[in-house]
Amino acid sequence: MTSQASDPTWFGQPRGLTVLFLTNMWEQFSYYGMRALLVYYMTKELLMTQGHSSFVYGAYTACAYFTPIVGGVIADRLLGKRRAVVLGATIMAIGHFMMAFEPLFYFALATIALGNGLFLPSLPSQINDLYKAGDPRRGWAYNVYYVGINIGGFLAPLICGTLGELYGWHYGFGAAGIGMFAGLIIYLWGQRYLPPEPPRVPTADMPPMRWADHKGTFMVLLAVALSVTVFRGAYEQVGNTVALWADTGLDRGLGGFTIPMTWFQSLNPLLVMLMTPPLLAYWHRRADAGKDTSPARRMALGAVVVACAYMLLAAVEWGSGDAKAPWLWFAMFFAIFTFGELLVLPTGLGLFARLAPPRLGATTVAAWYLAIFTGSLSAGLVGMLWSYVDHASFFAMLGLIALAAALLLRSLDGAVRRVDPTWGAKGD
Questions:
Q1: Span 154-212, pLDDT tens digits
Q2: 341 and 302 in contact (C-beta within 8 Å)?
Q3: Cβ-Cβ contacts under 8 Å for 97 (sequence gap 6 or more)
Q4: Which of 161, 138, 179, 309 is nearest to 231 (CA)?
Q5: DSSP 3-state assignment of 428?
Q6: How many C-beta neighbours within 10 Å does residue 420 have?
């Protein structure tokens, strides 16, 4: 049953959102925990070359975001969202435990990617069904959910990484498997708080879906996905060229102590957790005043903020000359960057889930993750320019890419309003 504002809640949201939040948090703990160890395990334990390990790593992460498009179809047409989550989580837990055995390495990676294909689109596609149409809480529910991703991403390197590096790689992989199993237990326990499964086959009261009825919606989502692909060409550089610059172009000294590089990478999920509550409170006040911002405009604003973050790096690099830049500038970059991210990524996920046609919720959400896949590929192509231009110009180029994505998203505002019943022709 969908929720109303007067129904029992946890933290002001339907109880099912907390169940989905915690399930996803532990799934992300297992994913990022394993990913934090993967390259080190391949090069130090399996003695792979850097090129081979990078190829395996890239192939695995690409598959992890490609399999959901198939898994979403299977969930919508055959299994249903709940069975897909349970089966996907079980398969992933098995895959993580398989990582403890060296001969099963490649089979373990394939198993995790397959399980992820069922799990990833099926879990967040249930959020929209927790709310009635017009419920103002639905607009920022995906930001609450997004915090779960980052809590798991923040804890995983600290726990799985420490266990793997100090006590043995297999202990770290085992901890990731335990995290996945914990998420599965939480989901099974909390199913009574989740929305009922929609019918997966046409009935007398629900005629078969026709493409022509939803063509406009699909075309709008495709345009949003292409805009996000452009955006991620700049966004994904944080783990690539920006990390390279921070390693060689940043003064990480603090009173005689050199700040470890990985600590800076933990700033992003930490800031997500710190920024989300006040941001949600602000949006809540705007919604109460009838001034809430439409999804496309919110995403466009976020892309502009990310562009400003990269322009800051360009200015810092240009101003530093041959000297290394103070690390405080890098911390400021992450603060601006994370704020923009919170406006773009959770909003986009929520938009795809909200506009999903009946009985195609998981498939439509899977298309959002396919945009992440294509965006990651575009980021790889952009990153190849790092060695051919000076760093200040490269960061300025990233700012322009994010700004181009902002213009594309802003141009889609009218189209999104026409297909989104929540907004219609409303203004801000």
A1: 888 778 878 887 788 889 899 999 999 999 999 999 988 887 776 655 544 555 556 56
A2: yes
A3: 173, 174, 177
A4: 309
A5: coil
A6: 18
Over its C-alpha atoms, the chain yields an Rg (Å, rounded) of 21
Q: Supply the pLDDT for residue 5.
A: 47
Cα angle 267, 268, 270 (rounded to 5 degrees) comes to: 65
Encode pLDDT of 314-349 as tens digits: 999 998 887 888 889 999 999 999 999 999 988 898
Model confidence pLDDT, tens digit, residues 354-402? 887 776 777 788 788 888 888 877 877 788 788 788 989 999 999 999 9
What backbone phi and psi angles, to 5 degrees, belong to 257? Answer: -110, 135
Q: Which helix (H) or strand (E) holds 10?
A: strand 9-10
Sorted by where each starts, the structural domains of the chain and their CATH numbers stand as: 9-195 (1.20.1250.20), 214-421 (1.20.1250.20)
Q: Is 126 exposed, middle or buried (0-12, 13-18, 19+ CB in 10 A)?
A: buried
Q: What are the strands, taking DSSP E only, across 175-328?
A: 250-251, 253-254, 257-258, 325-326
Residue 131 to residue 137: CA distance in whole angstroms: 8
Residues above pLDDT 90, as percent of the chain: 29
Give Cα separations from 88 to 43, 102, 114 (angstroms). Answer: 29, 23, 8
- 364's tokens: 């439509």
